């Protein structure tokens, strides 16, 4: 096996039987099978790659389920909100699975999985909190506008968490005042995930 980027041997459809299998990058093969990973802080590049793959794979075959494995401390709120929307509104069912941690906006992405297809490993940790920002410079109008936008984002996030978990808005608002950590079992009771373990058939 080549040293460097993990690769696996794959027999490509257009290869003759006598030809040697081809080395393919591991994550390319995973993507081909509808298995995606968010295992770092969410930023522009990773968000756009995963979002693009979800859209492409759902267009290629909207009857095949996708699987997004998450192990992330969060990251960019706006990119995470875009990914959340794509997961919820593509025609394909998307399983979301927390491997280790889904914190901040990563928990919002975990929540976006198809109903009854949101999972977490037994020792996973899930954390929700209100959005934060740094507003230290600018005139009064600028500061007011930025503060208003942060408040609007918080209201939007809280409404979606309430809608998808079944918890009252007031409960979410209070819990998100701080870093609110949950075990997998607690996240299931809270309504962020549906089951503990892997999707059926794995």
UniProtKB/TrEMBL annotation:
CDD domains: S14_ClpP_2
Family annotation (PROSITE patterns): CLP_PROTEASE_HIS
GO CC annotations on file: endopeptidase Clp complex; plastid stroma
Record carries keyword Hydrolase: yes
GO MF annotation terms: ATP-dependent peptidase activity; ATPase binding; serine-type endopeptidase activity
BP-aspect Gene Ontology terms: protein quality control for misfolded or incompletely synthesized proteins
Catalytic reactions on record: Hydrolysis of proteins to small peptides in the presence of ATP and magnesium. alpha-casein is the usual test substrate. In the absence of ATP, only oligopeptides shorter than five residues are hydrolyzed (such as succinyl-Leu-Tyr-|-NHMec, and Leu-Tyr-Leu-|-Tyr-Trp, in which cleavage of the -Tyr-|-Leu- and -Tyr-|-Trp bonds also occurs)
Pfam families: CLP_protease
Keywords attached to this entry: Hydrolase, Protease, Serine protease
Residues forming the catalytic site: 129
Family per record: Belongs to the peptidase S14 family.
PANTHER family found in the cross-reference section: ATP-DEPENDENT CLP PROTEASE PROTEOLYTIC SUBUNIT
Protein's name according to its UniProt entry: ATP-dependent Clp protease proteolytic subunit
The species this protein was found in: Opuntia streptacantha
Lineage: Eukaryota, Viridiplantae, Streptophyta, Embryophyta, Tracheophyta
């Amino acid at each position: 096996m080549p040293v460097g980027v993990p690769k696996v041997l794959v027999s490509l459809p257009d290869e003759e039987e006598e030809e040697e299998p081809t080395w393919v990058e591991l994550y390319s093969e995973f993507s081909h099978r509808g298995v995606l990973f968010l295992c770092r802080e969410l930023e522009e590049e990773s968000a756009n790659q995963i979002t693009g793959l979800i859209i492409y794979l759902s267009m290629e075959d909207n009857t095949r389920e996708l699987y997004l494995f998450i192990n992330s401390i969060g990251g960019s709120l706006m990119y995470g909100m875009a990914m959340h929307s794509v997961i919820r509104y593509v025609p394909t069912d998307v399983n979301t699975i927390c491997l280790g941690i889904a914190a901040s906006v990563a928990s919002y992405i975990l929540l976006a999985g198809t109903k009854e297809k949101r999972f977490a490993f037994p020792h996973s940790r899930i954390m929700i909190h209100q959005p934060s920002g740094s507003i230290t410079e600018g005139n009064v109008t600028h500061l007011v506008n930025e503060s208003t936008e942060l408040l609007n984002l918080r209201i939007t996030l809280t409404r979606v968490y309430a809608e998808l978990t079944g918890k009252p808005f007031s409960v979410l608002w209070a819990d998100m005042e701080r870093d609110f950590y949950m075990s997998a079992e607690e996240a299931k009771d809270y309504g962020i995930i549906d089951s503990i373990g892997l999707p059926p058939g794995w």
